[in-house]
Amino acid sequence: MIRRNRIAIAVAGGLAAVLALVVYTSNASGVDNRNVAQTGQAQPLQAQAAPEDYGTDAPLAPPTSEEPTTTTEPPQAQAAPAQDPAIAVVGTSVPKMGDVVQDGDGRTLYRFDKDTPNPAKSNCEAKCAETWPPLLVTGKPRIEGVDAAIVSTVKRADGSEQVTIAGWPVYTYSKDDGPGKWKGQGVGGTWFVIQPDGKRNVQCLPAGVTAPPAA
Question: 13 or 53: whose pLDDT is higher?
């Protein structure tokens, strides 16, 4: 009898142990499954963090392409005629003679009554041009004290450009020995100092020369 009881107790104990092991295994498996399930849900949430989580200082992604920059060149202004600094037309006043026009060296300029102003034409060539050198220019002369609107040029027979004032070609005189001289005044009754307005200056005429009609 005692032996049977021991056997029954042993069997009951074994069953209890087996049952306890089964219960423990089931509980452990449930815990692991819950952990795995929770872990599987947490990772996608972290990977899908909203952009605002980075704050306003988050660096922006660099652009993938840039539009070409085009530069529009400003229109270039047409170059003004080159100025010839060696040639000048300067209206001024000298003692006794009054209003005159001089070149860049201060030499007095003259007009010739045998020329024509409209159209402008020089009739002083060859030997005449040696005594009365025309005021030639290769660019734009410097103009002072004379209305630029009446200063122009005329083409001579040799192709050179001679300065004109109010249409009259202008010359220097080879016998004027320095700036401000006017020995050519009234020569031949046809050569006269020219004024800034293009008219003859009839002051200080030599003896025997009569002032021609104004022109």
Answer: 13
- Tokens standing for residue 6: 């021991």
The one-letter code for the residue type at 212 is P
Three-state SS for 169? strand
Put simply, whether the predicted model's pTM sits higher than 0.70 gets the answer: no
- HEC string of 142-166? EEECCCHHHEEEEECCCCCEEEEEC
Residue 25 β-bridge partners: none
Q: Is the peptide bond before 68 cis (omega within 30 degrees of 0)?
A: no
Q: What is the dihedral sign for C-alpha 86, 87, 91, 92?
A: positive
Q: What is the spatial distance between Cα 147 and Cα 165, in angstroms, rounded to a whole number? A: 9
Task: Please give the Cα distance from 75 to 199 (Å, whole number).
Answer: 43
Rg, C-alpha atoms of the chain = 56
Residues 6 or more apart whose CB falls under 8 angstroms from that of 13 comprise none
Element (H, E) at 170: none
Cβ distance 174 to 133 under 8 Å?
Answer: yes
Q: Are 178 and 154 in contact (CB under 8 A)?
A: no
pLDDT of residue 58: 45
